[in-house]
Amino acid sequence: MKTIQFREAVCEAMSEEMRRDESIYLIGEEVAEYNGAYKASKGMLDEFGPKRVIDSPIAEAGFAGISVGAAMNGNRPIVEFMTFNFSLVAIDQIINNAAKMRQMSGGQFNIPIVFRGPTASAGQLGATHSQAFENWYANCPGLKVVVPSTPYDAKGLLKSAIRDDDPVIFMESEQMYGDKGEVPEEEYTIPLGVADVKRIGKDVTIVSFGKIIKEAFKAADELAKEGIECEIIDLRTIRPMDREAIFNSVKKTNRLVILEEAWPFASVASEITYQVQENVFDYLDAPIQRITTADTPAPYSPTLLYEWLPNAHDVIKAVKKVMYK
């Protein structure tokens, strides 16, 4: 095993797949000459050249649409958005073309394309640069949605996403690109749609994904000092969702807390809550608790931003609530 940064894991995944398959290319703003806005494509222009690592204009609808057409004609594009906040400019291409083309063409066209880049808050970036869109894209049939939380998961899942014959939304975080973790030296992939039990416990299940899961680990460490053992499930893939992993954990712990960095209305947490009460309601010993951002646009003030974002204190409070402590 080697220890690398999250951005390096992303770069390795793309580079290894591009060496394996010449139909794969990377396109986006600053991905080539600048080595990526977050240096996730460092060195790729030198290795693969400007025809396969392509700097685009500031025109998300344009380069997303071109890549959907390229995918229909035998290529396997990786489209990088500098932030998924900017993907809204291209959402028509993603939702109305990439996601629906297989069905509308009667199966004549697959769209093997990955849309990737950072999602959610990254500090003091203001309301228009701090939104999470996992639940938006997961709402659309035809899209797969992946949100890794570690370098190991990022590399293995991204390789699987690139090989997938359907469009995949692959969401990262600006605040995780410098995170370090162990990654195997040899090639590996992680299947989409499989959650990971990151911490084993018997008292309460915490389900989360992406960078906000770090707050769950902080909370679990503190709760362990009080004798409360938390089981932490990292969804990794939002759609398709590994419901059985959640159900099996709830059957063991009888309590569920869901931690998500998104607005509460129509959230991923809302869907999980429905699925659990529909399928394993009789195992619950307490009402499900969900922790989300405040139901407002993201503030700029650091004091307000701290209150807006979920944190470990919120997790501890929710766990104690389901434990009746």
TrEMBL record:
The keyword Chloroplast does not apply. SUPFAM superfamilies: Thiamin diphosphate-binding fold (THDP-binding), TK C-terminal domain-like. It comes from Capnocytophaga catalasegens. NCBIfam families: PRK09212.1, PRK11892.1. Residues 4-179 form the Transketolase-like pyrimidine-binding domain. This is Pyruvate dehydrogenase subunit beta. Pfam families: Transket_pyr (PF02779), Transketolase_C (PF02780). It comes from the Bacteria. Its cofactor is thiamine diphosphate. One of its GO terms (molecular function) is oxidoreductase activity. The gene is pdhB.
